[in-house]
Amino acid sequence: MTTLVLDAHDISRIIGTVGRDAVMDRVIDALDTAFTALAHGTGGSTPARGGFTRQAHGEGCLEWMPHHEPGSSVTIKTVAYSPGNPAHCALPTILGTVARFDDITGRLTALADGVVLTAIRTGAASAVASRLLARPDSGVVGLIGAGAQAVTQLHALSRVFDIREVLVHDVNPGHLATFPQRVGFLGLDVRAAAAADVVASADILCTATSVEVGAGPVFDDVDLREHLHVNAIGADLPGKTELPRSLLTRAFVCTDHVEQALREGECQQLGADGIGARLPQLCADPATAHAQRARTTVFDSTGFALEDHVALDVLLELATELGLGTGLDIEYHPVDALEVYPPLAAGDRLAPATAG
Prior knowledge:
- The protein is an alpha/beta fold.
- The protein folds into two domains: about 5-115 and about 305-330, ornithine cyclodeaminase, domain 1, CATH 3.30.1780.10; about 135-305, Rossmann fold, CATH 3.40.50.
- It has twelve helices and 15 strands.
- The protein has helices at about 10-20, 20-40, 85-90, 115-135, 150-160, 175-180, 195-200, 245-250, 260-265, 280-285, 285-290, 305-320, and strands at about 5, 50-55, 60-70, 75-80, 95-100, 110-115, 140-145, 165-170, 190, 205, 230, 250-255, 275-280, 295-300, 325-330.
- It has an eight-stranded parallel sheet, with helices on both faces. A seven-stranded mixed sheet has the order 2-3-4-5-6-1-15.
- β2 (about 50-55) and β3 form a beta hairpin.
- The protein starts with a strand and ends in a 28-residue tail after the last strand.
- The relative contact order is 0.17.
- Pfam families: OCD_Mu_crystall.
- InterPro entries: NAD(P)-bd_dom_sf, ODC_Mu_crystall, ODC_N.
């Protein structure tokens, strides 16, 4: 029995063949369905991620994120956040790998790149939350942070809103300069602007920054539209936050995973009493979300493994449709389950050790 491996080339072939929009649409729809099932008690279980902080040209982390579908499968993503990667190593800030195991046997059934998957599912989750909480006529998107995650945030929002204008700000001039080209496939009007102008004009605001622990917020709570919806995705370490506390205290705040949000999300600044709802609850009861659209709303997105599980499902389905992926004998499956060592071919036998 082999393990299906989707490498970087396979992911590229899937997106190139099916199209960016079609892949994003499938993940958005699949997440909405999975969140609703979770609210109804049939979506499996996702404990908070574990991990440790590390020095990675600045403070970073390496985490493991498990999701369990009883009787079916276990999905585990390992993901590293290394803010110095683009400048020092020519690598993405976020690197990851996703593994799928059979729940009955524990056999490794699939292994896939997690870099593209993480970016797509994070954007898709923001689209699900924004579709529920933002005004349907929202046409101006603001972005604080113009790195890789900002691309899929904007892409996902473009699939559920008629966007007229995009304003973007980043403290890194290089990121800001290349952003219009990186999102050129969307055909949107994208302009660089000061942070204050971005937040003052936005109907929907996405914050996706590498702000250091204790250095936030990344914008001031002034001149914001009363109906502003914020997708805050950058907080992923204890002490790291992007939003002003004053905005959070007056807003309707929803989270994807409460335990994570209280430990390392924007809700560090609020506590459990400040959380209005979980995103799965709103997916199951959209009317509750729609009632909040006239006020400030926040999606505190820390990202949880159900999202990775769902995104992997989509990629595996597409790989099967397209005949992509490589089957590898990664695990040792002996004919005799009690045999520890693989049998050696005649030419592989080692000469006996001699005393010297």
